[in-house]
Amino acid sequence: MSARTDHEAIIRRFPTVESVSRRPGPGRVDHVSRRIGLLLLVLVVVGGSLGYAGPRSTTASESGPGGSLEVEYPSLTRPGLDTEVSISVVPDRSTETLRLSVSQATLARLGVERFSPEPQVQRTEADRVVLEFATEPGPSREFTVRMSGRTPTTQMPGRHRWELDWLPWDGAGIRVAATTWTVP
What we know:
The chain is an alpha+beta fold. The chain is built from three helices and ten strands. Keywords: Membrane, Transmembrane, Transmembrane helix.
């Protein structure tokens, strides 16, 4: 056996850089695929660290004949994170109590556990919870309610559309529609 055949046999048995094909082939495609995968992973990590993946709050407001209603709510949340919904009502006339209505499913989905201030009366009507709060007398006085809690850790990802109603005693209520996304 010559030295050249011994060398070729060794190269076949133990691949080296010399035995790698120089033409593009499956090895080159795998290399490019790994690079693209790493780039996408880096983009996801950077986007998440910059806050593009949540949590995020949004404000919605409506006005009507009885006054105005503004709601700041989580538009993007994750399971296990704290949530807060801030509701501001400015009635046109003086009122002694303020009534708000929200669905039981929304309170459960957002994990609402606390109200500030505490409602005087809390009751259910069909699938909704009606909360009554005592207000300070005086016209055009802003009244703010905060609902807070923690999104349940068992919350499935997806979109939840919900409404919050202000129910004045003397007429039609004002409704604010909202959408909260839960992401993994």
